[in-house]
UniProtKB/TrEMBL annotation:
Region (Disordered): 373-392
Domain of life: Bacteria
Entry keywords, A to Z: Lyase
SUPFAM superfamilies: Terpenoid synthases
Ranges that cross the membrane: none
Name the record gives this protein: Terpene synthase
Single GO term (MF): terpene synthase activity
Organism: Umezawaea endophytica
Keyword Magnesium: no
Pfam families listed in its UniProt record: Terpene_syn_C_2
Length: 392
């Protein structure tokens, strides 16, 4: 693969004796949709709809190039899908901040608002909170989606949003009670409440205007890759957003926080451990991905490529545009990317399973577990060109 100038393998202590953070491992090549100029239209839409009541959050979103983010995670889309999904992300970023703050004051109201959104997806003609700017804007985006995707794709995305809403409420309970969940619990919550994960994988089909057969998405090998994508996206977000969440005192449902509290680590030690865990998940993904069969040019192949783009696009945007995550008082840590395939980084073995019950099954499939049946873990002509020489 092409070497990156951002690659590093050194964790020598910095000048002040603080250990350097390990690089983020991602041997997936980037891809960017050329139509990132839709950001201007989406920002104007956000202003016109008036759903982002916080001037500080609105300013942060206006300079964060959210359309550039969507162009990286979903480069297979056209201008229409890109703009609709950019509007969804602007809405989601603003709504996320609003709900997290609301849950601390009034958990019941936060749960109500999430449930109302699900009701709108199930019954678009319902008049719940018709005058609420957030609800009105969400309904508008949902109407756009219905012109972009098939009923089957929309049905799957609705189910993913339902899971997302449930996860958000689950996380809100911990924030309201001021309790830090364990690593296994926080990972399970984040699989659900990280919108870039559980709803993001559903957007792959919406953006590309294609439909994967239900039986293909239900294959155990494909389900494993989808699950890995959810976790990698969630953990990456935890690593990037920890300073901002810590500054707002809402970092309860965050991998770094739970490592600080339950493993008795300093923040720096917890960041290092979180990155190492995330890198092992990435190695698991690449190893699994190379073995999954997908017919050339078919919808499943496009879906798998979409998962690759989600992971790499999210990384690139976060590494190059930290405005959303920089709270000023709690600077974002300097993170770098390692693109070259590896089985070790800074002495840490990437091939070792992560001992969390919620995800331990991933490695069972890699090392000869259930696989995907006759069409499961076989070499694929579509597999990314990872030069991963880990033992299989």
């Amino acid at each position: 693969m092409t070497e990156s100038t951002r690659t590093t393998t050194s964790t020598a202590p910095s000048g002040d004796g603080v250990p350097a953070l390990p690089p983020i491992y991602c041997p997936i090549q980037p891809s960017v949709h050329p139509a990132a100029l839709v950001n201007r239209n989406a920002i104007q839409w956000m202003r016109d709809r008036g759903f982002c009541e916080s001037p500080a959050v609105r300013r942060r979103l206006e300079v964060s190039n959210v359309a550039g983010f969507v162009a990286r995670i979903l480069p297979q889309g056209d201008s229409s899908t890109l703009e609709a999904i950019t509007k969804l992300h602007l809405w989601a970023f603003a709504f996320d901040d609003s709900i997290e703050q609301l849950a601390v004051r009034n958990l019941a109201e936060a749960a109500d608002r999430q449930s109302y959104l699900v009701r709108i997806l199930d019954a678009p003609r319902s008049a719940l909170l018709a005058d609420d700017p957030y609800v009105h804007s969400f309904r508008e985006v949902w109407e756009l989606f219905q012109d972009l995707a098939s009923p089957a794709v929309l049905r799957r995305w609705v189910e993913q949003f339902r899971m997302f809403a449930s996860g958000v409420v689950w996380g809100c309970v911990y924030r309201q009670l001021d309790v830090i969940p364990t690593s296994d619990t926080v990972t399970t919550i984040r699989i659900q409440d990280a919108a870039g994960g559980c709803t993001g994988t559903g957007l792959v089909e919406v953006a590309g205007r294609f439909e994967v057969a239900d039986e293909d998405l239900a294959r155990s090998d494909v389900r494993a890759l989808t699950d890995m994508t959810h976790v990698i996206l969630a953990w990456d977000n935890d690593i990037y957003s920890y300073p901002l969440e810590s500054g707002k005192q809402i970092e309860h449902v965050n991998l770094v926080t739970t490592l600080v509290v339950h493993d008795s680590l300093t923040e720096r030690q917890a960041l290092i451990k979180a990155i190492n865990m995330r890198n092992r998940a990435m190695w698991c993904y690449t190893s699994h991905r190379r073995k999954v069969f997908a017919p050339e040019g078919g919808p499943l192949q496009r879906y798998l490529r979409g998962l690759d783009h989600l992971i790499r696009g999210h990384l690139d945007w976060a590494l190059n545009s930290t405005r959303r995550y920089d709270s000023g008082e709690h600077p974002v840590p300097a993170l770098v990317l390692q693109e070259e395939s590896a089985t070790q980084i800074d002495g840490h073995d990437l091939t070792q399973p992560i001992d969390l019950p919620t995800i331990r099954w991933w490695w069972d499939d890699i090392h000869g577990g259930t696989g995907g049946g006759e069409r499961g873990l076989h070499a694929s002509s579509d597999s990314p060109s990872f030069d991963d020489r880990a033992p299989r």
